[in-house]
């Protein structure tokens, strides 16, 4: 069920929300599928800050919603600390039918600001998901492994009491778009930290 990482190269930026990019080749025990992907991971547990982000961040991206796994026990969240653990968990959920492999046809607007992440309909009349910044534990993007060049964006959140966690999965049009979302969210965390210090 779990994949073995053959090759890994990582680099990280000194920000309050650390982004690490890892190039790896992984084998899937589900179907012998081998894929090479880039993982951009945003870890909000880091306390580092670059101190060079002063503007309020607000950006919008068109994505598709794959699905979610909600209300997991918080102890489960502790076992999903590393990016590869989270990717493997999502893959297993797809194999078990808990998450679909591909999203629906409807595009949505994923907005990132200093307040968090908001997912709305294209006309923005309906807000479908709202993830406050302080409840986001991790965000990462990776190749979906289906050969179409699509990237998945996984968002792990917790509740205010940190008793449960949820995983939200969106499909991005490209790896560049997915990594851009991680970068913008990283800047949002920097801005929030600077606001707290001032």
UniProtKB/TrEMBL annotation:
<dbReference type="InterPro" id="IPR006020">
    <property type="entry name" value="PTB/PI_dom"/>
</dbReference>
<feature type="compositionally biased region" description="Low complexity">
    <location>
        <begin position="11"/>
        <end position="29"/>
    </location>
</feature>
<keyword id="KW-0091">Biomineralization</keyword>
<dbReference type="GO" id="GO:0001525">
    <property type="term" value="P:angiogenesis"/>
</dbReference>
<dbReference type="GO" id="GO:0072657">
    <property type="term" value="P:protein localization to membrane"/>
</dbReference>
<dbReference type="GO" id="GO:0030154">
    <property type="term" value="P:cell differentiation"/>
</dbReference>
<dbReference type="InterPro" id="IPR019517">
    <property type="entry name" value="Integrin-bd_ICAP-1"/>
</dbReference>
<dbReference type="GO" id="GO:0005886">
    <property type="term" value="C:plasma membrane"/>
</dbReference>
<keyword id="KW-0497">Mitogen</keyword>
<dbReference type="Pfam" id="PF10480">
    <property type="entry name" value="ICAP-1_inte_bdg"/>
</dbReference>
<keyword id="KW-0221">Differentiation</keyword>
<dbReference type="GO" id="GO:0009966">
    <property type="term" value="P:regulation of signal transduction"/>
</dbReference>
<keyword id="KW-0037">Angiogenesis</keyword>
<feature type="domain" description="PID">
    <location>
        <begin position="60"/>
        <end position="136"/>
    </location>
</feature>
<dbReference type="GO" id="GO:0033622">
    <property type="term" value="P:integrin activation"/>
</dbReference>
<dbReference type="GO" id="GO:0005856">
    <property type="term" value="C:cytoskeleton"/>
</dbReference>
<dbReference type="GO" id="GO:0031214">
    <property type="term" value="P:biomineral tissue development"/>
</dbReference>
<keyword id="KW-0805">Transcription regulation</keyword>
<keyword id="KW-1003">Cell membrane</keyword>
<dbReference type="GO" id="GO:0016477">
    <property type="term" value="P:cell migration"/>
</dbReference>
<keyword id="KW-0130">Cell adhesion</keyword>
<keyword id="KW-0804">Transcription</keyword>
<keyword id="KW-0597">Phosphoprotein</keyword>
<keyword id="KW-0472">Membrane</keyword>
<keyword id="KW-0206">Cytoskeleton</keyword>
<dbReference type="GO" id="GO:0030027">
    <property type="term" value="C:lamellipodium"/>
</dbReference>
<keyword id="KW-0539">Nucleus</keyword>
<dbReference type="GO" id="GO:0090313">
    <property type="term" value="P:regulation of protein targeting to membrane"/>
</dbReference>
<keyword id="KW-0963">Cytoplasm</keyword>
<protein>
    <recommendedName>
        <fullName>Integrin beta-1-binding protein 1</fullName>
    </recommendedName>
</protein>
<keyword id="KW-0914">Notch signaling pathway</keyword>
<dbReference type="GO" id="GO:0005634">
    <property type="term" value="C:nucleus"/>
</dbReference>
<feature type="compositionally biased region" description="Polar residues">
    <location>
        <begin position="34"/>
        <end position="54"/>
    </location>
</feature>
<keyword id="KW-0966">Cell projection</keyword>
<dbReference type="GO" id="GO:0007155">
    <property type="term" value="P:cell adhesion"/>
</dbReference>
<dbReference type="GO" id="GO:0007219">
    <property type="term" value="P:Notch signaling pathway"/>
</dbReference>
<dbReference type="GO" id="GO:0001726">
    <property type="term" value="C:ruffle"/>
</dbReference>
<dbReference type="GO" id="GO:1900025">
    <property type="term" value="P:negative regulation of substrate adhesion-dependent cell spreading"/>
</dbReference>
<feature type="region of interest" description="Disordered">
    <location>
        <begin position="1"/>
        <end position="54"/>
    </location>
</feature>
<dbReference type="GO" id="GO:0030336">
    <property type="term" value="P:negative regulation of cell migration"/>
</dbReference>
<dbReference type="GO" id="GO:0051895">
    <property type="term" value="P:negative regulation of focal adhesion assembly"/>
</dbReference>
<feature type="compositionally biased region" description="Basic residues">
    <location>
        <begin position="1"/>
        <end position="10"/>
    </location>
</feature>
């Amino acid at each position: 069920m779990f994949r073995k990482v053959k090759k890994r190269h990582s680099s990280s930026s000194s920000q309050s929300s650390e982004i690490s990019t890892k190039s790896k080749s992984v084998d899937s025990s589900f179907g012998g599928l081998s894929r090479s992907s880039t993982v951009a991971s945003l870890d909000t547990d880091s306390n580092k800050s670059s101190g060079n982000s002063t503007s309020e961040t607000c950006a919008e991206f068109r994505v598709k919603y794959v699905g979610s796994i909600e209300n997991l026990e918080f102890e489960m969240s502790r076992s999903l600390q590393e990016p590869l653990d989270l990717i493997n968990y999502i893959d297993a959920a797809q194999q078990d039918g808990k998450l679909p492999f591909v999203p629906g046809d409807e595009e949505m607007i994923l907005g990132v600001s200093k307040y968090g992440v908001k997912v709305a309909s294209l006309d923005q009349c309906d807000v479908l998901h709202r993830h406050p910044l302080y409840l986001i534990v991790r965000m990462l993007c990776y190749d979906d492994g289906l050969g179409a060049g699509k990237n998945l964006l996984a968002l792990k959140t917790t509740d205010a009491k940190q008793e449960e966690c949820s995983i939200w999965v969106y499909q991005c049009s490209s790896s560049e778009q997915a990594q851009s979302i991680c970068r913008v969210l990283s800047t949002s965390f920097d801005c929030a930290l600077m606001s707290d210090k001032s």
